[in-house]
């Protein structure tokens, strides 16, 4: 049995990694985090996007369930909502309103990010071999050939914490490139694509009678040579709505209450503003700007040390508008677990390299989807659309138009956005045929509301829109 593994970062990726390490038989799993972790589902400092909307997609939830069995039931018991993508969402896409179907489709869970993190952390820490220490990791120990541990900064200076395996799951703020330089491993390529997205979110009490109102989203339009602007009303635990607006560079949402409402009403459809105009706000507007796509191509490095794994946002981050981050973190931890099972322990030769390459595959898929859209916004920094981007964009637009009235086209989109299949699902023969055939039904002139939902919306509307 291996002696010790150290995980840097107590966020979602770090706690899932700790779980698979303990399950693999590591005698001691130490999770380091510089923050004081809350003792309940509350926002913490080290999670800049924590106050904004997060979607736990089908694929990511399945991966989490493999690592922490029963986590979905725990979330639902704590107040998370299970939303069907086929029937439980009102979505206005850049091509118009999408239909809702009375057929089975993938589901997602909606709740605050704080509840996800707390629920996973509480479940993982039930394992007796896992502990969390409040400490800042400031470097790696060892050599270019093998990492031997982590250098930790504390009140009495710096000390070394030895480990058979180190997992960097420190998130967007990772210093992995600098740490590798300290071992003599330089030249890692990093790419940043930044649409300048600003998120603004506010929590409301769900009005009486609106408890079953669908998740509602007006999506950003990347095809009109203007800044992207979007808004979402998402049910979360505690009989609340989490309302998040997002705007790319030049179209940022304001941080004041009046401007927040006006922003939602000025979207291509004012439905979000109409809903919240009659709802009671419970918080101020919270704004965040930590949203760029950043890819550290560690998996392409010509040399990689044994004993070091990088997962989650430390490997690649994505514009949070696309709801991929939590799922990609779970996929990476699942790769670690499967490779540990095959290798028989964390000190097996070549393990770190195999995990890194395996974890990079879902990162690359999510990166392609996020960056492929972000480069279309006129003020994006770090990339412009190429010929391949424009070809994929044209096909995606055609598929989205077909999805307004084609269940086959809609299913392909749901499967990809829910992350239960790779993006190649869009090019399966049935999906291609649906895209080429187009929608057999006419375009919707407005949101596909039931009579009861329309009554709720009209009853809440204080705008006269």
Automatic annotation (TrEMBL):
Domain of life: Bacteria
Signal sequence region: 1-22
Keyword Signal (UniProt): yes
Composition bias, Basic and acidic residues: 452-465
Key words, A-Z: Signal
Domain FAD-binding: 5-340
A family per Pfam: FAD_binding_3
Region feature Disordered, mapped onto this chain: 443-465
Protein name (database record): FAD-dependent oxidoreductase
Species classification: Bacteria, Bacillati, Actinomycetota, Actinomycetes, Kitasatosporales
């Amino acid at each position: 049995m291996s002696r010790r593994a150290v995980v840097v970062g107590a966020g979602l990726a770090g706690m899932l990694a700790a779980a698979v390490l303990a399950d693999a038989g590591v005698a001691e799993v130490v999770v380091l985090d510089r923050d004081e972790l809350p003792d309940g589902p509350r926002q913490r400092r080290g999670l800049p996007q924590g106050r904004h909307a997060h979607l736990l997609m089908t694929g990511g939830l399945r991966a989490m369930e493999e690592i922490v069995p029963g986590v979905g039931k725990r979330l639902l018991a704590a107040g998370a909502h299970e939303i069907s993508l086929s029937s439980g969402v009102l979505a206005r896409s850049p091509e118009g309103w999408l239909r809702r179907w009375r057929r089975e489709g993938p589901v997602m869970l909606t709740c605050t990010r704080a509840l996800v993190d707390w629920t996973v952390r509480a479940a993982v820490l039930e394992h007796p071999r896992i502990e969390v220490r409040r400490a800042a990791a400031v470097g790696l120990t060892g050599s270019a050939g093998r990492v031997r541990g982590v250098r930790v900064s504390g009140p009495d200076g710096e000390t070394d914490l030895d480990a058979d395996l180190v997992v960097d799951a420190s998130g967007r703020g990772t210093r992995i490139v600098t740490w590798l330089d300290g071992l003599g491993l330089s030249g890692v390529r990093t790419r940043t694509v930044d649409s300048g997205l600003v998120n603004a979110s506010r929590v409301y009490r769900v009005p009486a009678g609106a408890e079953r109102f669908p998740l509602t989203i007006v999506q950003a339009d990347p095809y009109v040579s203007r800044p992207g602007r979007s808004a979402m009303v998402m049910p979360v635990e505690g009989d609340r709505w989490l309302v998040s607006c997002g705007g790319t560079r030049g179209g940022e949402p304001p941080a004041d209450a009046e401007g927040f409402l006006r922003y939602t009403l000025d979207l291509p459809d004012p439905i979000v503003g109409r809903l919240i105009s009659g709802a009671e706000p419970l918080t101020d507007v919270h704004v965040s700007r930590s949203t760029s796509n950043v890819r550290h191509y560690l998996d392409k490095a010509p040399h990689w040390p044994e004993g070091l794994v990088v997962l989650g946002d430390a490997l690649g981050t994505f514009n949070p508008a696309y709801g991929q981050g939590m799922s990609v973190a779970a996929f990476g931890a699942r790769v670690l677990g499967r490779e540990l099972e095959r290798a028989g322990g964390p000190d097996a030769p070549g393990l770190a390299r195999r995990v890194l390459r395996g974890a990079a595959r879902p990162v690359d898929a999510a990166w392609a989807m996020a960056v492929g859209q972000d480069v279309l916004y006129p003020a994006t920094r770090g990339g412009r659309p190429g010929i391949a981007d424009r070809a994929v964009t044209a096909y995606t637009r055609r598929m989205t138009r077909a999805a307004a009235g084609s269940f086959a086209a809609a299913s392909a989109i749901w499967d990809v956005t829910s992350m239960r299949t790779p993006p190649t699902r869009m090019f399966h023969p049935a999906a291609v045929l649906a895209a080429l055939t187009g929608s057999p039904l006419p375009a919707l002139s407005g949101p596909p509301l039931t009579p009861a939902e329309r009554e709720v919306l009209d009853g809440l509307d204080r705008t006269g829109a």
